[in-house]
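debug: dumping io for the single-chain case to check the tokenizer round-trip. Nothing else runs in this session.
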Amino acid sequence: MTCEAISGALDRAEQTGTTTQADAALLLGARGDDLERLLVLASRIRDEGLERNGRAGIITYSKKVFVPLTKLCRDRCHYCVFVETPGSLRASGEQSFMEPEDILAVARAGAALGCKEALFTLGDRPEDRWPSAREWLDEHGYGSTLEYVRAMAVLVLEETGLLPHLNPGVMSWAELQRLRPVAPSMGMMLETTATRLWSEKGGVHYGSPDKDPALRLRVLEDAGRSKVPFTTGVLLGIGEDDADRAEALFAIRASHERYGHIQETIVQNFRAKPRTAMQNDSDLELQEYIAAVAVARVIMGPDATVQAPPNLTDPHELGLLVRAGIDDWGGVSPLTADHVNPERPWPHIGDLAALTATAGFDLRERLTAHPPYLADASTWVDDRIRPHLDPLVDPETFLAIEDAPVVGRPFDPRVTPVLATRASTAALSPAVADALSRAASAPAGLSDDDYLLLLEADGADLDALAALADEVRRETVGDDVTFVANRNIDASLFSPDRLTVERVGALVAEARSLGATEICAQGAVSGGPGYDYLDLVEAIRAQAPEMHLHAFRPPEVHEGAARLGLSLAEFLAALRAAGVDTVPGTGAFVLDQRVREVLGGPSVLTVEQWERSITTAHGAGLRSTATIVYGHVESPEQQLAHLRRLGALQDATGGFTELIAMPFVPLDAPGVTGTRGGPTLRETRALHAVARLVLTGRIDNIQTAWTKLGMRTSQTLLLGGANDLGGLLLDGTLHPEAGAEAYRALDRSDVARLADEIGRPVRQRTTDYGPVTTPSVSTSGAASADQDPATVRGADAAREAGAAGSAGTGAHGGDGGAGVAVPADRERTDLISGARLP
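debug: decoded output
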């Protein structure tokens, strides 16, 4: 690069306050006068953000203890000194995992010193590599390392009051959901997006399955979808170049722009360590590091938090990091070492405050979750941890109350139902109280005006509506939380060069081994000899003639019929004869033509086409789901009209098995503009409750769209009119990407825990809500003769059903089980393409 190119990139950044990825790669090379200009720019951007957010002149840190839960790991990073082998642990008298009493000893000592954070750090899924780790977990009654993490987080909360920040490496969507109730924040370093460092021999991440950049980027996405305040960052000096560094920072920014969840971006410099493969490599040069920190600030912008670890830079050089735009020092411990960088002691907090003051800033203590997330805690923090968190939060700044006592409190995992009832009418608006009184005896008998009033309910009115809907749910279908064990297949992949007939058979066989009773196939089949809709049905049926096939949405039915020159009735009859059992009722959106034109334009079926497809399917003996997508451009009047229309269709055909109310997610519909950006929780609760009332006596089952809503909101809805969770969406290990909503899968223990936390039993069902009579199969694929999975009750049953973890429900060991360890020869096969993968 030339000085002119760097100067030009600086000119553009100074004019706009931001930069492009190409310019960022240039700016990383700034030195001398150019670096000085870059530092001035980074400081200016940082200061603008602090001023805007009411924290002018403040740099933050978190007072913590470091809890190295286990030093075993299935990865083999070439620079890591944290990780040990079972042999080295035995030699030093250590066990595979820290014992609970040792964890508490550290946490109690930290609490006595005024710490408020317990940073849990550990190797990734050591039980997948080391038999001794598996044996320790088995002996102590834990199905996985992450299950132990959750239990120890609760123990620290209850016994000491320290707030857990969980940093256990790669987590699946479901694992993030499991851990969210016990920690205000979590984290995982992206490190780099340079795939060659993972896939090629000699790369620092070669032989480390959890360091695949694509996998780690997916964790960032899942954390965003799960509404977890998340810490991530880059590690510089491990073999990446400036283009890689810019790419990684832009990837972090892009994820944050989608979800708003990146609470801090760490820019960490490589420090060589003895006993590692990189012990003879040079540390990252200071000016190179300072330039990278400044570029990170320019990329991330004024409202982001940029962190640099203060122990990895010499004290007299920390002022350069401040000039480079940092506004946070991260966690600093007055007690425990930095177990990842043990050769670099933490600065004393008093010394750090003095150095920060020399740079012109005040040092203030924050909590594990940063102020913007605590200011909107109802969105970002699970309410079950709020009793532990709220006493430590300054209600004005949302920083830590520095002299607040840290006190252990009982952790209650239960999600309690809203206590409002129809009897507590004093707190209700008169009109709502009157409507609910009449709905109690005739839930489906209210007027449109009554239902519209209830759709706008809030506060105590909404709580009372939800309580009534819950009563109607209990009277209609009982207390069981139901689910179906299924596997998705994206039918649009079905083709000779992507998802072949043979590979479909393999996916179906794997689903059967995981205990699935349903295959759900959706997507427009591309066509071609041997690869049409009926061919896909035949491929599935050939492998599993006994399995329920739920396949093809109304748009696909129309397209398939037109392709074959058949009427809808003829095509649906052919599908049923070939082996389709039920059809999805998706694509309904809102049954109002103007709304549909806004959402999908001419490619979306008209109201008449959708209704004709559904009624024709029902007439052919193919039952279907009913759906509504809400929270976009529709009005309450249009929501109610949609529910009324579904009720009328059910009166005519009796073919709907359930209603699935799906929130509009803008990120899943990038071409749709002008919407209100998705529903609020208030709207979601009101719609599900009103749907229960309107459809009473017509559609008995109301399902929560857990992949879009998350588990905590799903629990809220199950206490407010809903009764069903839908499908587990078992990914398997052969090719998770072959299914829609891949990598968002549950296992039976997830469902059991969810139901137990709301005090309800759980029951596995068939697609059409019948009893499951197939032999019990665990989520790991092992047959079980002593347990019927159709009814799993309570936490003990959850342990029994899921003790083996959810092996097979994630391509990378995603849900806590055995996963897929990368073999020694680094070869595995992509099921779709047949290509060799590293």
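debug: round-trip ok. Residues 419-423, 775-838 have pLDDT under 50 and may be disordered.
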